[in-house]
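Thread: "does anyone have the structure for this chain?"

Original post by V.I.:
We have the sequence but no experimental structure in hand. Need at least a predicted one for the grant figures.
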Amino acid sequence: MSVAAASAPSRAEVLHLYRSFLRVARKFTDYNIREYTKRRAVDAFHHNRNLSDSSAISSAFSDGKAQLEVATRQAVVYSLYAPKLKSVMEAQIPIHRSECTD
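Reply from O.Q.:
Generated one for you, tokens below.
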């Protein structure tokens, strides 16, 4: 094991990993998978926010990088087989003023 692998990642590296997760999540065309990926990333980073042991931080960081690689591959696969229709959650339904009651 090298010395660089044993040291804890910097704050900038962790933030870069977090932002990368959110960027990859935006690549999913399916609403449910996109929101799940975002929620899973946010939950994992919040869960590991209070880690203080450098080996635990390094382990969580390397696990996060591995998960990012999986998510990136999955985004590519899902884009190949993306449905042509949008989810009901993404549909832009116009609301007519005559239907609204004030």
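V.I.: this helps a lot. Residues 1-5 have pLDDT under 50 and may be disordered.
O.Q.: and The helical segments are 3-6, 11-27, 31-47, 54-80.
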